[in-house]
TrEMBL record:
Gene3D superfamilies: Ankyrin repeat-containing domain. It comes from Actinoplanes palleronii. ANK repeats lie at residues 467-499. PROSITE patterns: ANK_REPEAT (PS50088). The keyword Transmembrane helix does not apply. This is Ankyrin repeat protein. The lineage of its organism: Bacteria, Bacillati, Actinomycetota, Actinomycetes, Micromonosporales.
Length: 588
């Protein structure tokens, strides 16, 4: 495997936020108490399987085997290991993946599904499936079909090794790679420049044209592991398969090797998925955490305890786990404002600036007439009204399907509150940018304790992220009604939309939030006729088809606006279906 600098920086951030220490502690405590459902709940894994049904359909022995595995399932460890693409700057799980945990028979396979969207609630879903498992969701046959949330998967990770999810096997992490306890420093090669790259391969009898390296820089330059063993595996394969040998890492990159005379090989980058057999190099790697330790990017004390035990089998003390958010500095931030330095500080959960009410009103008026904010006003706006500009890319800056990306309403069926205008020119001082990023990453990964501790320390509850989302947009992730009540009491708007027009209720419902959160938002006055993205579909209409159980459970709260909007939507859909059928009949 090869890791670029962007990868390693990204993984450092992932290790800090993606599996919060309180989640590890709670899930471990439940697992050790024999409460595997409790462990799943603590690690936000929805359990969608019924042991008594397995028993009646597949027999007692099969059900017992499944149950025994579930007793040792460490959902927090699985979350630690599942694929992400942090080089894109995002810490979320890779969405829409189906991973096979255990295979009992071809029609009884234990799988876990990753979230439907990259930015929604980071909930995993544990269920049983049957072959054929395909990357085309409609063809994946489920044990009990008809459950919409399980049909969204676009990729299948076949048969994850046990050490990534089964606590009994977690200690096999190093042996899976054929390694013993560290140090592993001699296995890592720093091949960050073309010349060093070409020389390292040449010393092993493999010639790589410099030009190929320059063209494929992102595939070539970075940290490489175990180069001599890779070359040996390729040479072994070449003895049975004369000609080209393709080797590589699934979902990552492939290399092609051809004999070049005199016992040497010529290497090139192979940019397609190999059609035929290839030499898998997955096991010729190094556990990611061992590499991060080697690079000094993670403190061993911040590892997941099961990973720590696997990497340091002779250690006696248990690690603390991922670090908790630090107490943000209460010192004021100095901002250049109208030729002078002013101090911006937090007071009562809001950004306080040393300007009178009249001055602030005058500034607001200037902006209304097209002026731009500056100094203190800009800092306050950036923190509480969102980004220092529009989202970087109009498409999507996560590289993942994102329910809130590109959802600019064209013609909403029902009038909506105008979305927040991003403060285009507002520049946020660096310390405040970091505070904002910290708060929103904690929220994305469902670290409720972390969010509350930052709010207690004085960070503004009115903070908005780069897409104009407030903490209310993350209630599906945070799952805490006390926090929700606190945010509403602080004056956050239950209908405050982000730059794409998405309201907290839409985010919670569409982002697979719990029923309690959805009900609480409606009770707080969130409009039920708010719409989902560009289609203009009212959220209640979406719930009716996609999450019928939730729809039924909020029926008593429905208001007339929601009913009107839904009926209007259904009529529109029926009309366009009729028009489409008519068009088809005219154009057979
Ligand atoms: Zn000022």
């Amino acid at each position: 495997m090869i890791l670029t600098d962007a990868d390693t920086r990204g993984w450092r951030t992932v290790r800090r936020y993606a599996v919060p220490a309180p989640m590890i502690h709670r899930a471990t405590e439940r697992r050790l108490a024999g409460d595997w459902r409790g462990a799943c709940s603590a690690a936000d894994v929805a359990v969608d399987l019924d042991l008594s049904r397995i028993k009646s359909r597949f027999g007692t022995t099969a059900a017992a085997r499944v149950e025994q595995d579930l007793q040792h399932f460490a959902p927090d460890l699985l979350r630690w290991h599942l694929p992400r693409r942090p080089s894109t700057g995002h810490t979320a799980l890779s969405p829409r993946r189906l991973s096979v945990l255990a295979r009992y028979r071809d029609d009884l396979i234990l799988v876990v599904g990753s979230p439907r969207t990259g930015y929604g609630r980071q909930q995993l879903r544990l269920f049983l499936a049957a072959e054929p498992l395909t990357s085309r969701p409609s063809q994946t046959h489920r044990d009990d079909s008809g459950h919409e949330p399980c049909t969204w998967h676009m990729a299948v990770d076949r048969d994850l090794p046990r050490h990534v999810w089964d606590a009994r096997h977690a200690g096999e992490l190093l042996s899976w790679y054929g390694l013993g306890p560290g140090p592993h420093d001699h296995l890592v090669g720093d091949l960050h420049d073309t010349e060093r790259f070409v020389r390292a391969w040449a010393e092993l009898g493999v010639d790589v044209p410099q030009r190929q390296v320059q063209i494929n820089r992102h595939m070539a330059l970075g940290f490489w592991y175990r180069l001599p063993e890779i070359v040996r595996a390729v040479r072994d394969a070449a003895t049975t398969t004369p000609g080209q040998v393709v080797a590589g890492w699934r979902d990552q990159s492939y290399l092609s090797f051809t004999p070049a005379g005199g016992g040497r090989l010529a290497m090139d980058f192979y940019t397609y998925t190999p059609r035929d057999a290839y030499v898998p190099l997955e096991r010729l790697g190094l556990p990611l955490d061992a590499l991060l330790i080697h690079l000094g990017l993670i403190d061993p004390d911040h590892l997941h305890p099961l990973i720590h035990a696997a990497l340091f089998p002779s250690a006696t003390a248990s690690p603390a786990g991922p670090p908790r958010p630090g107490r943000p500095s209460a010192d004021p931030v100095r901002v250049r404002c109208g030729g002078a330095w002013h101090e911006v500080r937090w007071v009562g959960g809001r950004v306080h600036i040393p300007h009178s009410e009249q001055e602030q009103q005058r500034e607001t008026m200037l902006v209304t007439f097209g002026g731009s904010r500056s100094g203190c006003f800009a800092a306050k706006t950036a923190m509480e009204n969102g980004p220092a500009g529009l989202p970087r890319s109009p498409r999507n800056d996560t590289d993942f399907p994102d329910p809130w990306a590109a959802t600019v309403s064209v013609t909403p069926a029902v009038p909506q509150a105008p979305p927040v205008r991003p403060a285009r020119q507002a520049r946020l001082p660096r310390r405040l940018t970091e505070q904002r990023r910290d708060l929103m990453r904690l929220a994305l990964h469902g670290d409720t304790e972390g969010v509350v501790s930052l709010l207690d320390a004085g960070v503004s509850a009115h903070t908005r992220d780069h897409r104009g989302r407030t903490l209310l947009h993350f209630m599906a992730h945070l799952r805490d009604l006390t926090l929700l009540a606190r945010l509403l009491a602080e004056g956050l708007d239950a209908d405050g939309a982000d730059v794409a027009g998405v309201t907290p209720l839409v985010a919670a419902a569409y982002g697979m939030g719990d029923l309690a959160v959805i009900r609480a938002l409606i009770a707080a006055g969130a409009r039920q006729d708010a719409t989902v993205g560009s289609t203009g579909e009212p959220i209640t209409a979406w719930l009716e088809t996609a999450r019928p159980d939730v729809f039924a459970a909020i029926a008593d709260l429905q208001d007339s606006a929601a009913i009107t909007a839904r009926l209007h939507w259904r009529r529109q859909m029926a009309e366009s279906a009729r028009a489409h059928a008519a068009w088809l009949s005219r154009h057979p």
